[in-house]
Protein 1
Amino acid sequence: MAMSENAAPEDIQAMSYEQARDELVAVVGKLEQGGITLEESIGLWERGEALAARCEEWLVGARARLDAAKKAREGS
């Protein structure tokens, strides 16, 4: 499944942080275990990259919300 560099599959875009993190851990485990074909490894790597990007989106969003709350509190 080919995807553009910045677009994650819809199922990943719909994931919560915890769902994406848990699947990323599973993907890394499968890659570390080995015993899969090169094609399967590449597919897992690509999915892992998309999952990691989704986790990063959640973390950046959380940081922005915390910063906004802090500024609002300081402005009161």
Protein 2
Amino acid sequence: MKLKNKLLMATVLLCVHELGWSQIKVGYVQSERIRSEYEEFRVAENELQLEFRKAQFEFQTMSDRLDSLRAAFETQRLMSSPEWKREREQEIAGLERQVQDFQLRKVGPEGELYQRQLQMETEIIQKVQRAVSKVAIDRGFDYILDSVSLLYAKPTHNLTDDVLYELRKADE
């Protein structure tokens, strides 16, 4: 991804050079700073962490129960009836399926937590994009870059504070 950013930056700079510096106004934002200072990002991250811890606790509880059933089965297997063994094996197999299903349903690539994270990030990124666009239009910038791939930029072209202001103003 960084290579992609660098190629994009080089292309933009080449275009800027070809068109002439006096005609184009370029600014930048520090997306990591926006992520750390914008309250909605922090709240979303805390909510996701809480949901992840709850899922992790539930998973651990199920896994502990499965381990306990397996251990009990192993210690009593030799002295038990075939029917008891079959019932315990079915119980263990059912719980194994439950654990796998839970894991896929909650944290798998299509899981609830992944989908929730994607939804929250998409909503926040759209807000950030609107704020960046508003600042760019209001201040007459032609391009706004992310500082992640910048090697140098004048601090006067840093629009991060303006974007954070727009985000906070939009939340009121």
Protein 3
Amino acid sequence: MTPISRRLFALQFAAPALYSGPLVWFTTGEAKVVEALTNQIIPADDAPGAVAAGVVYYIDKQLTGPLAKFAADYRNGIPLFQSACSKKTGKEFLSLSFDEQATYLRQIERESSFFRMVIDHTMQGFYGSPKHGGNRDEASWKMLGIKDVMTEDHKH
């Protein structure tokens, strides 16, 4: 039996506790797929990654506002992404190990406009202001050492 890493265990079983939800646009299933994608884009290392920063909640919230023009792309893109993954790997994306997910995404990143869109939105949610639903606890600002500067800037 292969031991499961603490990180993989946390992602698969404890991740819902990190949610700052409730979800307002995504279904739970859609959110799990998007969250797994964001975890691949900005994984945790010695600093919090996209999951801990609540990026899926940024995307979810913004799909009812400024990112509404992308709502259909997510609603249609998630099942198409899942189907393509199943065809290529024989497994659903969420069933793949972290490393298998990374390998699959490297194979499709140039051709997948859906994945490129998720990358863009992940970056916005991770590095943007927490007032927009992501960057929980100013995770990226602390990582970059700009927390105090950004906090002061947003007080005005």
